[in-house]
Batch of 2 targets.
Target 1
Amino acid sequence: MGESVFLNGEFIAAEQAFVSIGDRGFQFGDGIYEVIWCYQGRAFRLNEHIERLLGSAAGIRLELPYGRDELVKYVKQMLTDIKWEYASVYIQATRGPAVRTHAFPSDVQPTVIMYVNQGQGVPTSTREAGIATIIVPDTRGTLCNIKSVNLLPNVLARQAAVEAGAGEALFERDGIGVVEGAASNIFAVRDGVLSTGPLSPYTLPGVTRDCVLQLAKSKGLPVALEFLSREELITSSEVFITSTSKEVLAVTDIAGHVIGNGRPGPVTLELADGYRVLVERECGIKFGDNRC
Ligand code: PDD
């Protein structure tokens, strides 16, 4: 973790940052969060992440004590001396500390924290091989478009993936299809058409997903916004996941079924490279030989 963290308007030493055990984030999961990926200390798509944070806050009727510009300013301030190749900024806002009762307390001040961690990035060997995934039933509700800290189904799903030796768990929802990963959006290529789920209460509107859709448009790739069934997904020629930290990452195995020829496909690689070009352009950095 960076040396200082943000707690309710102040930058203080991480060891001195404490939150009340009565905090509603701790008691009820009554809060929201964001994860922003940073390259050589530059936050990628910062405005989009802050915009989503504001949307998540509105989604749980939480009035944040800071506006868009202040939040952007604080994130940049926190990144001032960060030189790591990769870093992640974590922001969390909860309804704050109060006597425990389910409904909103009348007099409560939100708790807002931010900190920065060094990021690892995806190893080249993993990028070249792609990842295996498992499919698990989607036990979440219909607020998945809100980035809330209620992540128990996601935690259990990812743990099941780890125990199965896989890199991600994909949620399958009755009557809808395979909607997204435990911490990622999902894309497939079928008959030359790139598909991902539409914006819905079943998925997070991923910032990386949005970048990929913009890239696909600029490259003239046909796109379909639709959820695929398990059968459609495993018979796709390419599948990949997207997230802030994983960027565009090939999926080469789903529940024991090999996808395509078992290697990252050409569309996936083109979009992964296009994403890195976007990062270079928007963050004003150069990856050099290490671009993908
Ligand atoms: N998760 N869907 C879910 C359920 C997620 O948790 C995430 C990201 C995404 C991808 O969103 P984005 O492209 O904006 O990162 C989709 C973050 C990284 C996390 O919880 O750590």
Target 2
Amino acid sequence: MKEKLEAIRKQAEAELDGLTSPEQIESFRVAVLGKKGELTSILKMMGKLSAEERPVMGQLANDVRAFIEEKITEKSKEIKEKEMQKEIDSMPIFDVSAPSDLSRGSYHPITLVQRECENVFKSMGFAVENYSEIVTDYECFEALNIPKHHPARDMQDTYYLENGQLLKSHTSAAQNAIYKKYRDSLINDGLPIKAIFPGRCFRNEATDACHENTFFQMEGVMVDKDISISNLIYFMKTMLSEVFRKDIKVRLRPGFFPFVEPGFELDISCLICGGEGCPSCKHSGWLELCPCGMIHPEVLKAGGIDPEEYTGFAFGLGLTRLAMMKYGVKDIRDLNSGSLKSLSQFTDDE
Ligand code: FA5
């Protein structure tokens, strides 16, 4: 048996030397180490050895197996490196100093409206905050007065990770963290909380001309003593007139969201069809753009703010829909299409 094992070791080394592809390596591995491989069949004969010989041969067989496995790993690495080098050598040489025949890229329409909105709110003293796309159930729902099994969750089905976290279905998911970040300066220094937080949102829903499963919103909150609906309406009006720079028809109607009371839906007259009705506005002439309302006392409490002393407003602007209206994009899906032809129409001179 000793001779046989030595022979297998030698033969394996010689054979491996001549292999040139991952497929050949795999066939070799199966032929030598596999269930029906040469080495395995020898190991099956161990039972016939004497009690003294068995541990000696067992040790030798293990050494041979370890030796072959190591050689296989080395050879695979060598083949991989050779393949990679071949690929690199076949690449055309790219001269970074050569004049480009490619046209300049352009900003995405959503980036353009996002920046515009940010500038408007920054000029009114709002801080711009960034927030993660992966959030907890608490942040996305519970802290917003939407307990488990609340029917309002049905409106925002999203994508769940195996660890129980989820892709945020709305930018409101950042509210709790923002209140906690700024509450000390509100309570101790009397500085109002004024923040906007744009971000990508995800919903597990069917797409159409005005619905995407991945879209952008921009949340805004303001908390201080004596904040009222008038403040909310003032900021909404200012933002819309600055972004559109023309008169647009707006309507405010009651809307239900568990995290505001009272809550409103702010719609704008569809700028694609002039309010006549088209697929972009689901033939209603109006587009839901920016739900808003006075922050619910429970939500302030969850953020560590006393609702008896402070009030505030919050809004959730549909940035993707705003980009559609501003740039006349009839189908929201074009904005995620990655089609340079559609998107390059919005090149900005920035
Ligand atoms: C919300 O997401 C609330 N968090 C908004 C809010 C914030 C209310 C603060 C009150 C206070 P809603 O699901 O309606 O609400 O979405 C808000 C806006 O996001 C919509 O008006 C729309 O403009 C946009 N939106 C929602 N779903 C989609 C979608 N699937 N595709 C594109 N835009 C969408």
